[in-house]
Amino acid sequence: MTQVVDTTELHSTKKPRVRTLGRSGIVVVASIAAATLLPGCGMSSLTSGLGGGMFGGSTTKTSVDNITEEQLLSAAKSDEAGATGSTSVGEVAHGCPKFVPWPRENHITIYEQGRVGDALAVMHRGEITNTARECVIEPGKVTVKYGFSGRVLLGPKGKGGIVMLPVNVTVTDSKRAKILSDQSRVDAAVALDKPIGYFSAVRTVTFAVPEGNRPGDFEVFVGFDRNTPGAG
Question: How far apart are CA 75 and CA 77, in angstroms?
Answer without folding.
Answer: 5
